[in-house]
Amino acid sequence: MVSLVGGLDREITAQYSVLVLAEDQGHPVKSATATLTIQVSDINDNTPKFSQDAYRVEVLETEAVDFTLLTLSAEDPDEGVNGIISYSISEQSPSSDPATFALDATSGVLRLVQPLDYSEVKEYTLKIQASDGGTPSMVGSASVVVVVKDVNNKPPEFNQEMYEVSVYENLASGASILLLEVTDRDEVIRNHLYFAVFVFYYIVKTKLKTFG
């Protein structure tokens, strides 16, 4: 009888060749040999593993839909369907409907599928999964942080389109006459606003009447 005396791991050794010797108890001893080949069959005992536990990618807020951000890769040493990997996004934070990103189940390509807006969301965190085809399926996970980069694509906005103010003619030079409120939704470093004030002088012609 041939019996197992140690553990097996197909991913380390998939096949064994054993030389079996048989001897009788006669005088002289007679013997014979045979070769036993043992194939180790695979079971789904390995979890898919991503090349990194965490990924980080930066993308401009003006990138077009269908832009490729990243190609993810995971490995599973099992054979056959046990080693075939399918990729998916299990969670997006902050969430959106429809989802902002899509992950190709076969290639692992992560794409942008909705427009970005830095003023709305500056960073996304995705939880991604790699599932093998075994039964039951083994699942590996990783995270992707998508950092949205600001582009100076929004003009400053006044809080109203037209202002009207009355001042006395003897107002001193340099005196404040109006506080303008302006906002810019782009990143702070771009929010230094410069004002160019155009003053229009209306000359009112007067006609003097002389009495005498």
UniProtKB/TrEMBL annotation:
Membrane topology of the entry: Single-pass membrane protein
Major site of localization recorded for this protein: membrane
Matches recorded under PANTHER family: CADHERIN-87A, CADHERIN-RELATED FAMILY MEMBER 1
UniProt cross-references to InterPro entries, sorted A to Z: Cadherin-like_dom (IPR002126), Cadherin-like_sf (IPR015919), Cadherin_CS (IPR020894), Protocadherin/Cadherin-CA (IPR050174)
UniProt cross-references to CDD domains, sorted A to Z: Cadherin_repeat (cd11304)
Top-level division of the source organism's lineage: Eukaryota
Organism encoding this protein: Oryzias melastigma (Marine medaka)
Gene3D superfamilies: Cadherins
Gene Ontology molecular function terms on file: calcium ion binding
A single Gene Ontology CC term: plasma membrane
Protein name: Cadherin domain-containing protein
Protein's cellular compartments: Membrane
